[in-house]
Amino acid sequence: MSNLKLLQKEAQDFTILYVEDNLNLLQKASTFLKKFFKRVDSASDGVVALKLLKEHEYPIVITDIRMPNMDGLQLSQEIKKLYPETKVIIMSAFDEKDYLLKSIELGISHYLTKPVNAEELTKTLLKMIKEINHARHEKLFYMHLQNVFNYQSSMVAMLHDMEISIANEMFSDFFEIKENAQRQKTMIDLSANFLAHDGFLYNHNDVDVLSTLQHNPRKLFHAKLKDKSGSMRHFILKYQNIPEKDDYGVLSFDDVTELNLLKLFDSQESDSDMKMQNSKEMFDLLGVIQRNSAKVSVHNYYKGLSITNDAVISHIGEDKISIKTSYIQLKAMQIEQKFLIVSEALPKTLHCAEIIKMSFEKQEVEVSSLHFMNTSPIMRKTIRVVPDGKMSVSLFLGENKFHGEIEIEDISLDAVKLKMQALPAGLSGESDDVSLDIVLELDNKPLIINTTVKMYRKKESHHSFYIVFLFDDFSKNGLVKYITKRQMALIREIKGMQNG
Questions:
Q1: For the segment 172-219, what is each residue's pLDDT rounded down to a tens digit?
Q2: HSE, side-chain direction, 13 A CA sphere, residue 317
Q3: Nearest CA-CA partner of 212 in 237, 187, 175, 185
């Protein structure tokens, strides 16, 4: 499309004022401009032009410099004072630096030398119209953004060096910020409003609310505050740094009081009920995490090896959720047929026990049967591995050897988990005289472990018994080497799944 056709399209909703004391040039220019602009007005000097400007809106003014009564530079100076957004094109038959420098001082970026040809004028007008449209769109955008900022359902404030710089109306109303002069004091007092609650953010011990927020951008925090009426409100907080402005950030408070989630964080209630399975409160909280696009961590155990990757909640149904995560994590889920979810926004580890369907193409898994866990394998202090190769174990109660079948489920530096078809007579948590002889294979040689043990935990399932025994002191050098090598072998297995 030619510049003339483009100008005809772009200028059809614009008005323009042309100022020229040469009546012949004035008439010719007006006739040319009327082909493109919605309205073209003209004036023969600056005084008349200024009067027209006060009566009408002209986003663009073209003016000659040398004119009677008020010249083009004086007119431009008045325009910039009264209508700073108006674009001005100055024309002069005199190619003198003084005029050019003066026009630059006035903030006029468009200076044309007479005689002006149609192509040069057309390009200049197109450039100005583009600038005007951009400024209009930007103004409209920020006006809309201001409305969103003030009237959205969340309390939002922009912070500079962790002090309030700008706050929306909801934030100002909640914290009773009346004047700018009060804002710094309010920000200093802000963290004192955070009330103590299990799993929530508040000042205690070495925890400082503002410092914690600043050093954990995009992390979700729970907070409990009182409103002006004294009622308790439950918020989810998120602090985000502004890119390339390290000392600036945005703090948002999402009020989730109506979701009745506080009891999930109440240690007495939650301890009694992490029986709470597929509860409304649980799914409401997952919904908040999803709306904030917050990452969660997904954990699996492949033969004892911990596999952890980031994930996002992609969909929440009535009694199930969908999670997107990495291919390797999906493979671990496929093998284990369950997984764990951890997030700062969750009160405890979430156990996902029933995989409904899985898509490696979409890198997504759908799961049901969710419940919170009071204890979690994620809290393990030592690495456990499932042994491989030749192994055997013998259990002794005093001098008596147990002759039932025993299998090693997993082993760590501190403990071993055994599977038995029957329990040895007399075995209890108080038994002191219990020892194990364990034989593993390390570098094609037997690794023999002989140690006394203490029963730590017992569980019965499908006619089998699972018992965890804690080791007493013994030289663990060989076991350290065994567990390290076993870990490396399991990592190679996992990588092989990823590649194949």
A1: 888 887 654 444 444 456 788 899 988 899 999 889 998 999 898 888
A2: 12
A3: 237
| Cβ-contact 305, 385 below 8 angstroms | yes
3-state SS, 262-282, equals HHHHCHHHHHHCCCCECCHHH
Helix (H, G, I), strand (E, B) or coil at 284: helix
Using 50 as the pLDDT threshold, list the residues of the chain that sit under it.
180-187, 270-274
What CATH number has the domain spanning 3-138?
3.40.50.2300
What residues does each domain of the chain span? 3-138, 155-259, 279-379, 392-491
Share of the chain residues as helix, strand and coil, in percent rounded to the nearest 5: 35, 35, 30
User: 474-494 burial string, b = 16+ CB within 10 Å, else e?
Assistant: eeeeebeebbeebbeebeeeb
pLDDT for 448 equals 94
Cα–Cα distance, 403 to 401 (Å, whole number): 6
pLDDT at 274: 46
279-379 topology per CATH: Thrombin, subunit H (2.40.10)
- Which of 199, 309, 190 minimizes the C-alpha distance to 251? 190
Residues 6+ positions from 190 with CB-CB distance below 8 Å: 164, 175, 209, 210
Rg (CA), the chain: 37
Q: How far is CA 421 from CA 391, 393, 424, 462, 475, in A?
A: 18, 14, 10, 10, 30
